DNA sequence: AACAACTTCTCTACGATGTAGACTGTAGCC
DNA sequence: GGCTACAGTCTACATCGTAGAGAAGTTGTT
């Protein structure tokens, strides 16, 4: 009676504020970033927010929807607009932005690449589709027909996602023991069956993701530029 | 006593044979192919094999290991060797093989792209590394230095995985109502924010994965061939 | 045939998870 | 005040992965 009304604040940092979708999603993102996808359970997230797990269902229909929300939230960090008239420079910049985004949220990448598999294109969250639309615009403004802009987008984004997956696979262990561990791992491979791979150990050990990405883009953009200068579409005047 | 020793065969099609890893994994694959990743629970797989779920732990340390096994099993379906001296033709063929593999096992693709993220390169199952080794060989034989063969491999496989993810995203719904559903979905998009995407509805509706893949490969291989003819590595005589 | 050593498979049990459904509080409005 | 709508909570349940102890089956030795 003479004690404080609030039972005991214990771990909860924030006073009980009204929840909302953004709050829930960003707490979820923090959790995923710091402890991985598996740590994102309804109970745990509820605890993190100082709320009953059930309260979350007001803001996401179920766990899968929560995951989609997180993935949308991350994609929204990507800013596309820019008036740079050089479309190749733009594509390059976007590529590096996306790469950095992925490195900032490595645990979310599996969501980015697999969640859309469960949702037909038209029904995805708008945030997810915005990059697509903006890149289409960019390409069309650059002179591609709508039709081939789509194909170019696919090749471009396909490569981008592939690169990101590749890069993340290289860097789970911390860079210090990276080389040692890597060699150790490679050492396990039968020399007869994996001569090339084993010989590449030193090269594998120092991986420069940004440079790797740029090399790939060089190839891709060169190819695209060549395509642009051709009379590619029959409708084109 | 007068009845058969075997209690009741009920649903079990095969007599109780001794289990082994291959049996378990291929049953798991069948399950994943037909009902999706979520259907692959230890209990369900046990039931499918007419065994106690616990018996599975003899052949896979835990569920994650089981998933890795399935993904390795699928990758083993990919045959790389071939003495075609034209490396570009080979890369093209492998790309299409992998694409078909992915279409044959769409539910496994999420595993293929995300499971390796949890395992450092050197510690992955050998089956998973074999394609890497073989493609490296192929490229080195084609005249690339070991060093740049690795970079080329990355660009190539990166694009490949990206394409596959892209393609699978287009085709979850069945082709009949595909167009309708697609339009329906797109119709939901605010016309102001998504003019390009909406306009592309008809193009989106008839997607030819193989052709798309080939276009991307055209770009990539052209770029690579150009690179090959350059004096790329200082060590090269 | 009899035993022993082993591998394989089964049983039971536990803690954790997602989520349905009924309930309790709380905020705004008349 | 009383009323309505919505936010948050409580309890409960089916299902999951898997630990640990034991039963059943297989194989080798004598």
From TrEMBL, chains A, B:
Gene3D superfamilies referenced in this protein's UniProt entry, alphabetically: Homeodomain-like, Tetracycline Repressor, domain 2
SUPFAM superfamilies: Homeodomain-like (SSF46689), Tetracyclin repressor-like, C-terminal domain (SSF48498)
PROSITE patterns: HTH_TETR_2
Alphabetic keyword roster: DNA-binding, Transcription, Transcription regulation
Any one GO molecular-function label of the UniProt entry: transcription cis-regulatory region binding
Pfam families: TetR_C_1, TetR_N
Occurrences of domain HTH tetR-type (ranges): 18-78
Domain of life of the source: Bacteria
Single Gene Ontology BP annotation: negative regulation of DNA-templated transcription
Record feature DNA-binding region, as residue ranges: 41-60
InterPro entries: Homeodomain-like_sf (IPR009057), HTH-type_TetR-like_transc_reg (IPR050109), HTH_TetR (IPR001647), Repressor_TetR_C (IPR004111), Tet_transcr_reg_TetR-rel_C_sf (IPR036271)
PANTHER family: HTH-TYPE TRANSCRIPTIONAL REGULATOR RUTR (PTHR30055), TRANSCRIPTIONAL REGULATORY PROTEIN (PTHR30055:SF151)
Protein name from the UniProt record: TetR/AcrR family transcriptional regulator C-terminal domain-containing protein
Organism: Arthrobacter terrae
Taxonomic placement: Bacteria, Bacillati, Actinomycetota, Actinomycetes, Micrococcales
């Amino acid at each position: 009676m003479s004690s404080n009304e609030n039972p005991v604040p214990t771990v909860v940092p924030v006073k009980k504020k009204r929840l909302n979708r953004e709050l829930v999603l960003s707490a979820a993102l923090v959790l995923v970033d710091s402890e991985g996808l598996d740590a994102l359970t309804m109970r745990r997230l509820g605890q993190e927010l100082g709320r009953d797990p059930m309260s979350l269902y007001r803001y996401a229909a179920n766990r899968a929807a929560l995951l989609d929300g997180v993935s949308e939230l991350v994609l929204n960090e990507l800013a596309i607009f820019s008036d740079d008239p050089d479309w190749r420079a733009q594509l390059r910049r976007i590529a590096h932005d996306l790469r950095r985004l992925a490195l900032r949220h490595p645990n979310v990448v599996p969501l980015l690449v697999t969640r859309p598999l469960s949702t037909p294109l038209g029904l995805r969250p708008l945030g997810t589709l915005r990059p697509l639309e903006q890149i289409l615009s960019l390409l069309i403004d650059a002179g591609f027909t709508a039709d081939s802009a789509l194909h170019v987008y696919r090749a471009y984004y396909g490569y981008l996602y592939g690169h990101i997956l590749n890069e993340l696979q290289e860097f789970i262990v911390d860079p210090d023991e990276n080389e040692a561990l890597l060699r150790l791992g490679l050492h396990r491979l039968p020399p007869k069956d994996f001569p090339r791979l084993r010989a590449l150990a030193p090269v594998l050990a120092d991986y420069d993701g940004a440079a790797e990405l740029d090399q790939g883009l060089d190839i891709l953009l060169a190819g695209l530029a060549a395509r642009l200068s051709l009379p590619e579409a029959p409708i084109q005047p």
